[in-house]
Protein: DUF1232 domain-containing protein
Organism: Methanothermobacter marburgensis
Amino acid sequence: MDFTHFYDVLRENINSYRGEYERIVDYAPDLFRLLADVLRSDELGSDERLRISAAMGYLVAPYDVIPEEIYGPHGYIDDVYLCAVVVDELASRHGYGFLEEYWAGDEDLEYVIEECMERASEILGEKTEEILSYAGLR
């Protein structure tokens, strides 16, 4: 499967964003690409594939917990949080070395995931459980 088109659209949507949450929002396309590329691995179990697909579907869904159509780029914070949670789960099973083979981002993946989870959790507060539940991950 080729998810390049959505990656490009996502990158275009957030490229011009400058604001308080710019650093977190800017990771959305790279996290999407990572999850799409990891899906190609034969080392994943069906549960892991479902969790990855749920995170990718959430990112694509127009009306999730914090919709982009209403909140603009701020609406990607919940998407980044969910993707980071799934990547963190994958890292706990396979290690960051496995994931870094698929990572196209410029920064250290483990640092990115820790930063995204910490910062997004602070911003989202109690909504984190709602986001996980909405995506079917809780």
